[in-house]
Write a structure and sequence with these properties.
Layout: E1 2-5, H1 45-94, H2 100-120, E2 122-123, E3 126-127, H3 137-151, H4 156-163, H5 171-179, H6 184-195, H7 202-208, H8 211-225, H9 239-248, E4 258-262, E5 265-269, E6 275-278, E7 283-286, E8 292-296, E9 301-306, E10 311-315, E11 318-324, E12 329-334, E13 336-344, E14 349-354, E15 357-360, E16 363-364, E17 370-373, E18 377-380, E19 392-393, E20 397-399, E21 404-406, E22 408-409, E23 412-414, E24 420-424, H10 427-430, E25 436-442, E26 445-452, E27 458-462, E28 471-477, E29 485-494, E30 499-502, E31 510-513, E32 521-524, E33 529-532, E34 539-542, E35 544-546, E36 552-554, E37 556-559, E38 565-576, E39 583-584, E40 590-595, E41 600-604, E42 612-613, E43 619-624, E44 637-641, E45 649-650
Parallel strand pairs: 7-9, 8-10, 9-11, 10-12, 11-13, 12-14, 13-15, 13-16, 14-17, 15-18, 17-20, 18-21, 19-22, 20-23, 33-37, 34-38, 37-39, 38-40, 38-41, 39-42, 40-43, 41-44, 42-45
Antiparallel strand pairs: 1-43, 2-3, 4-5, 5-8, 6-7, 24-27, 25-26, 25-28, 28-29, 29-30, 31-34, 32-33, 35-36
Helix pairs in contact: 1-2, 1-7, 1-8, 3-4, 3-6, 5-8
Length: 655
């Protein structure tokens, strides 16, 4: 029998930095100089005042140049430290054979240096770096939401476009703004996240990131660091020349957004040269490649005609008709828009996306047209006095993402040309107690929604061969971030009933002895985790299974914190997971694992995790039972394999 007492340090803890690196740059104006003729007369009081102001301006310019030079020197030192911090954060995120104690020590030393530089940088008795953290809270929230969307599978370009309302269209454009000195709020928030003492620091974020998200953040950091300006040149320049130098360093601004009020519509964008409005008919024509936002301001709009390839965003628009005359039309919906009809000219293609709801009375087109849905919700109403609540849709529909199409569509396929069948979302049975739906993920593709419980919702899914594969759905309600609700569902086509049915995707692979389901233990299908909640559970076996798609999978085990004394017999348990923990013993538990004769048990965890993870204050005893009389079976075995460089039994992280 062996007894281990190991304290777990769950994660790499980065130092908390106090203060925000901010430099105040003084601006200077040109010098006014009055030349008067010496006539022996007294100089007027007005001229004396002008001369005094000119002297003050000159002093201000000199002071501004001195502030810039002092600030630049401090920023250069801070930048060097930030470069090293980013390098250390990358090492921590990559894992592998690294000395985390040494990393921690160097991080603390660097953070101390940064704090010292921030605190000591001053002009006279005035601190150079002022704390204006409250000004960037909104930008911090934007960055966090960008990372959350990237984590949820949304492409970075789409995420930044959604979060900025189209003001920034891609990560590439964001990097250009950073490189040009624009997007000052984002520059400040990146620095603030690196050094603030409140909330999660950037180092913690980097330490927990993997793959594309880590690359995205490091990319933004690189762009940020490239914006540091060169030291002010020519300290001996004349005041006017210094003022010109300051003007040259003014950040490059993006093109201003133009706005036009056209009847009941407000049209905005950076380039409105392709927008034409006929006041006599109320028709709005949008052509060209520029992106345009059309906002409803109340009242009924006329026809909106699309002839270009730019993206048109519709926000709460009520109109008579949307006419599509191009094969590259793209419409993003936000809010709830209502149109009498969509008319598609021969060969026209319309792509609909966004997080809004588009309600239509009819869609006019033929087989030469395509309605492509990548997100959002579209409703085609049934005709008046008709028993059918949904209208008929004859235009071919192609699904490129998770979208809701509430219509009696004749031809719906996925991007590969496979036929899709409808599945109506029944709130009462599928989402009991829910009042709204803000996010939908179908087979890994995500979209934003704005559906209420009273709204009908119809998904279109490929039936598959022999009912396989099953479709995975994730429903979320993010209306209140502190009360995020998530519901997982798995659907499979029932050939006999000609409909989709909810199925169990990952059946419980464990055989549990002792206790009562849902009270003493719970199996969570989404994560394939068996949660043991009390000491009433006495024995386990199994651990491997086959999902509904006939693909093998492995379960995992997690003990609740504070159970206390627990004796658990492992009678042939196999848990081999590619990520995360295979067996978590929780915190403040006294666990005895009993290995009966002939039982072989294996626990293998993913990167960064011990094979069997011990929490703080948890004791582990392994008891190998000897064979009974006339029992020739070998002694039971327990094998625990941690991720690369991690302990077999102990705390997570590098051993």
């Amino acid at each position: 029998m062996d007894e281990l007492r190991i304290r777990r340090d769950r994660s790499f803890v980065s130092p908390q930095y106090q203060g925000t690196a901010r430099g105040e740059k003084a601006s200077a104006a040109g010098q006014s100089q009055a030349v008067t003729r010496a006539t022996g007369l007294k100089v007027s009081e007005t001229l004396q005042e002008m001369a005094s102001r000119a002297a003050q301006m000159e002093n201000g310019i000199r002071e501004g140049r001195r502030v810039l030079q002092t600030g630049q020197s401090a920023l250069d030192e801070i930048k060097d430290s930030l470069d090293r911090l980013a390098e250390l954060a990358r090492k921590a995120a990559e894992g592998g054979d690294v000395d985390r104690e040494a990393l921690q020590k160097e991080l603390e030393q660097l953070s101390g240096e940064i704090e010292r530089m921030i605190a000591s940088a001053a002009v006279g008795d005035t601190p150079l770096f002022l704390d204006k953290g409250a000004d960037i809270k909104d930008v911090a929230q934007l960055l966090m939401r960008l990372l959350a969307k990237a984590e949820a599978g949304v492409s970075p370009d789409q995420a930044i476009q959604e979060l900025t309302g189209g003001a920034i269209e891609s990560i590439a454009q964001l990097k250009e703004l950073l490189a040009g000195g624009g997007a000052q709020g984002l520059q400040e928030v990146l620095l603030n996240l690196m050094m603030t003492g409140s909330g999660a620091t950037l180092l913690k974020l980097l330490a927990g990131m993997q793959g594309g998200n880590l690359e995205l953040m490091m990319d933004l950091l690189s762009s940020l660091q490239s914006t540091q300006a060169a030291p002010e040149q020519g300290a001996d320049q004349a005041p006017a020349q210094a003022g010109e130098a300051l003007q040259v360093q003014t950040p490059r601004q993006a093109e201003p957004v133009q706005t036009m009020d056209l009847g009941p519509l407000r049209v905005s964008g950076r380039d409105l040269s392709g927008v034409t409005f006929r006041e006599e008919t109320g028709e709005l024509m949008i052509s060209g490649k520029a992106d345009v936002t059309v906002q409803g301001t109340g009242g009924q709009a006329g026809t909106i005609r699309l002839t270009g390839s730019g993206t048109v965003e519709l926000r709460d628009v009520t109109g008579t008709e949307l006419t599509v005359e191009t094969a590259q039309a793209r419409v993003v919906t936000e809010g709830r828009s209502q149109l009498a009809q969509v008319r598609m000219e021969r060969g026209a293609v319309l792509t609909l996306e966004g997080g809004g709801r588009l309600e239509l009375d009819a869609v006019r087109g033929d087989q030469t047209n395509t309605l492509r849905l990548t997100g959002g919700a579209v409703l085609v109403r049934g005709e008046k006095d008709s028993a059918e609540p949904l209208g008929r849709l004859t235009v071919p529909v192609v699904l490129d993402g998770a979208a809701i199409l509430m219509a009696r569509a004749v031809q719906v396929t996925d991007a590969a040309g496979r036929r899709a069948e409808p599945f109506d979302l029944i709130w009462k049975s599928l989402l009991p107690g829910w009042e709204r739906l803000t996010d939908l993920e179908a087979d890994g593709k995500q979209t934003r929604l704005a559906l209420l419980r009273s709204d009908p919702a119809r998904l279109w899914l490929v039936r598959g061969d022999q009912g396989y594969p099953a479709h995975s759905l994730v429903f979320r309600d993010r209306e209140r971030p502190e009360q995020l609700r998530t519901r997982y569902a798995y659907l499979q086509w029932n050939k006999r009933k000609e409909t989709f049915e909810e199925v169990t995707m990952y059946p419980n692979p464990f055989d549990v002895t002792g206790g009562e389901a849902e009270r003493d233990w719970i199996y969570e299908e989404e994560t394939q985790t068996l949660y043991i909640l009390s000491s009433q559970v006495t024995s386990l076996s199994g651990g491997t299974g086959v999902d509904t798609n006939q693909v093998p999978f492995s379960g995992r085990i997690a003990l609740a914190d504070g159970i206390g004394a627990l004796e658990l017999t492992l009678d042939g348990v196999i848990c081999q997971v590619v990520s995360g923990r295979a067996f978590d013993l929780g915190e403040e538990n006294n666990v005895t694992l009993v290995l009966p004769g002939g039982a072989s048990n294996l626990f293998a965890s993913g990167a960064g995790c011990a094979g069997i993870t011990q929490g703080e204050g948890t004791l582990l005893c392994v008891n190998c039972l000897g064979p009974e009389e006339e029992d020739e079976s070998p002694a039971g075995t327990l094998t625990a394999a941690g991720g690369l460089g991690c302990a077999g039994i102990g705390r997570d992280g590098v051993a």
